[in-house]
Amino acid sequence: MATVIVFDEYGEPDVLHPIEVPDPEPGPGQVRIRVRAAGVQPFDCGTRRGDFADYFPLEFPARLGNEVAGIVDQAGSGVTSVAEGDEVIAFLRMQGYADTVVVPADQVAKRPASMPWGEAGVLSASGQTAQTALDELAVAPGDTVLIHAAAGGVGSFAVQIARERGAAVIGTASEHNHDYLRSLGAIPVTYGPGLADRVRSVAPDGVDAVLDAIGGEALDVSVELVGSTERIVTIADWANAARLGVRRVGTERSVGKLAELTRMYGEGHLKVSIWKAFPLARTADAHREVETGHVRGKVVLTVD
Predict the structure, then answer these.
(1) Which of 21, 74, 222, 287 is most buried by a 10 A CB count?
(2) pLDDT per residue over 269-294, tens digit each?
(3) Cβ(287)–Cβ(45) under 8 Å?
(4) CA 207/CA 274 separation, integer angstroms
(5) 8 Å CB contact between 102 and 52
(6) E strand or H helix that includes residue 168
(7) CA gap 121, 15 in Å, rounded
(8) CA 151 to CA 162: how far, in whole Å?
(9) pLDDT exceeds cutoff 90 at 34
């Protein structure tokens, strides 16, 4: 039997609870993974609360989780890219909070030997969201990129990927995260009144592009700094984006993107920050932690 975390109604974190289900069986082109770690995203919390119910209503009981790492224990027919016993990272949709999952083999990449399980479990979703947003912005060498909520899950990856692409990066964050951002290669600035002036003081030649991961006032400031909405995207504030004409982006996932992330990690160009780890049975506590809004990097669920 497999353990999965589900919820039967929208609500607070306590709606999340474990159930036992028969072990899933991989079909043609699929693999079964015994999960060792799974990432928790702000998107998961919003889905649980019902924030997106008008856009994609759920059928209950519903599941969550879009990124896992674990060990392949069974492969379906036609699978040649991975084999039983391989240690892998996978992306999936709304089923990662579990000790066993089945995913298409073309959504799986090998885990770098040097990468701990917790870091592997949180790499895929936020990492690929950051890649997608920076692709949308066409970030290139010589650009100056402003990243809002730069110490969070997506922001932490975006800072490093933008630096890898040759851009200078300014990151907004609370002051206690400034040293962390410096360690990733960003110039930190503090949120709050006067933000535009603080950015100008560290980027006198201007800002070329903005990735917003917090919304609210940050989007208005971004439009002021860039002078147009052409090179501004948000992953956080749909309502304000519509008002300002800013593009919303999601995640265009591929095993190629995932392989690029693992390459960067293996070459020492990508750090993965784990803020806190919780066992699968304490998924509700993991959601509470994410909802504090003070997470540096990622929160991970672990499976023994």
Answers:
(1) 222
(2) 999 999 999 999 999 999 999 999 88
(3) yes
(4) 30
(5) no
(6) strand 168-172
(7) 23
(8) 14
(9) yes
Question: Tokens 């672990």 map to which residue?
Answer: 302
Cis peptide before 26 (omega within 30 of 0): no
How far is it, in rounded angstroms, from Cα 188 to Cα 203? Answer: 11
Cα pseudo-dihedral 247, 253, 259, 261, rounded to 10: 40
pTM score, whole prediction: 0.93
Q: In angstroms, how far is CA 189 from the centroid of its own chain?
A: 22
CA distance 67 to 63: 13
Q: Tokens 């919390």 — which residue?
A: 45
Range(s) of the chain covered by CATH 3.90.180.10 = 2-123+272-302
Among 44, 262, 275, residue whose Cα is nearest residue 161: 262
Q: If pLDDT is split at 50, 70 and 90, which confidence band does 100 have? A: very high
Q: Are 12 and 45 in contact (CB under 8 A)?
A: no
Cα atoms in the Cβ-side hemisphere of radius 13 Å centred on 26: 23
CA distance 99 to 302: 9
| Chosen CATH of 126-248 out of 3.30.70.330, 3.40.50.300, 3.40.50.720, 3.30.2310.20 | 3.40.50.720
> What angle separates helix 42-49 from helix 283-290, to the nearest 10 degrees?
110
Per CATH, the number for 2-123+272-302 is 3.90.180.10
Q: pLDDT band for 248, please (50, 70, 90 cuts).
A: very high
Predicted local distance difference test score (pLDDT) of residue 78: 97
In the chain, CATH 3.40.50.720 covers 126-248
Query: For residues 147 and 162, what is the distance between their CA atoms, to the nearest angstrom?
Result: 10
d(CA 219, CA 210) in angstroms, rounded, equals: 9
Indicate the residue type of 131.
Q
**By C-alpha distance, which of 168, 216, 209 is closest to 192?**
216
Q: ∠221-210-198 over CA atoms, to 5°?
A: 45
